[in-house]
Write the structure tokens for this entry.
Amino acid sequence: MEMTRREFMCAMTGMASAACMSRGEGVPPLSYVAKASCPRVAGRMPATRKGGTPSPRCLGKYPGEIVPLGDIRKQSKWSG
Amino acid sequence: MKSKERLWQWGLHMKVQCELCPKGCLIGPGQSGECRVRINLDGVLRSVVYGYACSMNIDPVEKKPVFHFLPGTLILSIATVGCNLHCKNCQNWEISQADPEDSRASACSPEKVVALAKQCQCPSIAYTYTDPVVYYEYTYDTAKLAKQAGIRSVLVTAGYINEPPWRDLLQHVAAARVDLKSVSDAFYRDVCSATLKPVQNALVVAKSMGVHVEVVNLVIPTLNDKPEEIRELAKWVRANLGKETPLHFSGFTPMYKMRHLPPTSLQALETARDIAAGEGLEHIYIGNRQTETGENTYCPQCRKLLIRRVGFTVLQNRMKDGHCPDCGKEIYGIWK
């Protein structure tokens, strides 16, 4: 039977669970296997909400240094 | 999207996938995407540069370069740090490839940007220097407010963005100056860490939505200056964007990770211009090099001089309401 690596891991986890349960062994190794075999989690973040407005996700604070606005009438040194 | 609560029940850290650009970064908690400015904070994607401009200056519109858009006017130009491309030849790499943590920025809300443009009598605002794609929300909100205030917006971009957000943004934008760095996907992959198709798609979408489009091609010696490649690029522009679309061939200056290459010769740029003219394009310009006529606009019908430029300065503008004063041909662009 063809299966992905993660499906294979899930199948193995199931067997390991059954074995551990029957022998009454502890949970920690099981939780580790379960975590490793669980499908990778990814929430999708659309760039815009329905209706065309951007999602409100500005952070509200800048991680770098904040400086006062300079002389904007001077031509920029940057290209473009 | 699966609820955050459920994920935490499983004791897992939630990753988010950014759908803004074709890279589709899968971002772990507390990490940022390739652009460095879009981070996953508690399972929510956030922009750390919203409202924080690393550069804000008033430039001539010819500096963008946008030649068929309000010639001779000033344009308020803003940028934040970060870029979703990593071009080895980037001229602005000090801000485009900088981490927000290591950079300086000034707090400037979209409302303040629009107010400054009004105060300085700039008829337009440019989102430039880095790439407005990565500060999408800031660009979007500012462009929307600007449009309401009668100020036009110009995107100076590499056009590496997914179609839905691009379409939403273009609703509030008057012009887009897009880099078409090559028509070779291998070039995009090797030099820019990007791909060609999304850029071509962005150009076609912008044109189809009635946004004024100008294309810039930076000619880099030995990498994308082969006559066949220039010809293919000109053919693509003509076939997909129309022969009236302005095409700028810019000269490369050794920079960033490409200091080993020589600067583009004027002769190479003139050859590129001749090839594009041979393919039927009507408005071809030479940039980043001093030339007698390379920046002038000529009527494609009667070949008379319409706009004379030197550097970023318009010395003479003979246009009459967007038409040639001699033969009356309508010239593509936004002229008032």
